[in-house]
Design goal:
378 residues, alpha/beta, Aspartate Aminotransferase, domain 2, Aspartate Aminotransferase, domain 1, 5-stranded mixed beta sheet, 12 strands, binds pyridoxal-5'-phosphate
């Protein structure tokens, strides 16, 4: 089965009881047992048919052993981290998603889970960070907002040699453009709120693991902690996945055109987009992904210029989040990365005039025209 077909026919297609082509929303908490302990489903925290269909589908699409759905991307990440114990240590990409940074440094640290943040794009830094109690390397690639790239295969090979798990946050690339498990990762996870849902109408998370042991460990956490999504949200994700292929094809094409336009515009100082040959991670992205995605950051020089741009754009909606059909725009230094001290932001290269866009699937000529006019102050 080829990728676009798998998005539609993978996992469990339709409903075996009624022939319904769309998986029904099983809006139910508990299930009649034929006799004590004789049941297919017991209780919806433990398992629900709509969630099960989504979990089978994402496992199939990512090429893994089993899939798990959660109430948000952060619930997915936190639940994966709960497979570890006090005294364990995890090495993470230094510019991971802010919520991941927060849960590691303000929540899970209180339970004794230790962490070190390094540039995972530099294998020497990863090697130097590993200790006797290290259990996993957590990679996000490409990162937000500068689209820094990590070579997943290289990290996974090293991790295997040290008996460590490789965990990849695949939110920006989606399973359509990047398959971390095929590159050697053990666990891949998503904020399904973004491209997988794809329509800015659901908050959810997904995880795929690559072994029976990890599946049983994560199901134990999922059922114990209970950070599960409801059946309606699961249904929205199944529906979103059906069009992920065509949405990502369109997203790739639109983003490439927008990035090239920005790269040639006199009001823009610097463009960060892994699809541009000038981007540091371009060659690795070409090797490990089938597209460059829809995220672009660019520097307009000053925070005033950024504000002016925000005031003028018509089709780029000022909002957090990303990965939806509609284009979104944000200023990391004032929004997603505002809680990071200015000196640290400067170190990371997140300047005040940095603008981030999530390119949607509107007509690209409208998007370019919109940016062109707004950058010219019109
Ligand atoms: C949004 C996001 C998350 C968190 O997901 P939520 O669904 O908002 O909880 C994690 N990782 C990345 C890369 C994200 O963009």
């Amino acid at each position: 089965m080829r990728p676009k077909t798998r998005l539609i026919h993978g996992g469990i297609f339709g409903d075996e009881h009624t022939g319904a082509v769309s998986t029904p929303i099983y809006q139910v908490s508990t299930y009649k047992q034929e006799g004590v302990g004789n049941f297919k489903y017991e209780y919806s925290r433990t398992g629900n048919p709509t969630r099960h269909a989504l979990e089978e589908l994402i496992a199939d699409i990512e090429g893994g052993h089993a899939g798990f759905a959660f109430g948000s991307g952060m619930a997915a990440i936190s639940s994966v981290m709960m497979m570890f114990s006090a005294g364990d240590h995890v090495v993470l990409t230094d510019d991971v998603y802010g919520g991941t940074y927060r849960v590691m440094t303000k929540v899970l640290n209180r339970f004794g889970l230790e962490h070190t943040f390094v540039d995972t794009g530099n294998l020497d830094e990863v090697k130097a960070a590993v200790r006797d109690n290290t259990k996993a390397i957590f990679v996000e690639t490409p990162t937000n907002p500068l689209l820094k790239v990590t070579d997943i295969e290289e990290v996974a090979q090293f991790a295997k040699s040290k008996n460590l798990l490789t965990i990849v946050d695949n939110t920006f690339m989606t399973p359509y453009l990047q398959s971390p498990i095929k590159l050697g990762a053990d666990i891949v996870l998503h904020s399904a709120t973004k491209y997988i849902g794809g329509h800015s109408d659901v908050v959810a998370g997904l995880v795929v693991v690559n072994s029976e042991q990890l599946a049983s460990d994560l199901h134990f956490i999922q059922n114990s902690v209970g950070a599960v999504p409801g059946p309606q949200d699961c249904w929205l994700l199944i529906r979103g996945l059906k069009t992920l292929g065509i949405r990502m094809e369109e997203t790739n094409q639109n983003a490439k055109r927008v990035a090239e336009f920005l790269d040639g515009n006199d009001n823009v100082k610097n463009v960060f987009y892994p699809g541009l040959e000038s981007h540091r991670g371009h060659d690795i992205m070409k090797k490990q992904a089938t597209g460059f995605g829809g995220m672009i950051s660019f520097d307009v020089g000053t925070v005033d210029a950024a504000h002016k741009l925000l005031d003028k754009v018509r089709y780029f909606t000022l909002a957090e989040s990303l990965g939806a059909v509609e284009s979104l725009i944000s200023v990391p230094s004032l929004m997603t990365h505002a809680s990071i001290p200015p000196e640290r932001r400067a170190e990371l290269g997140i300047s005040e005039g940095l603008v981030r866009v999530s390119v949607g699937i509107e007509d690209v000529e409208d998007l370019i025209e919109d940016l062109e006019n707004a950058l010219a102050g019109e």
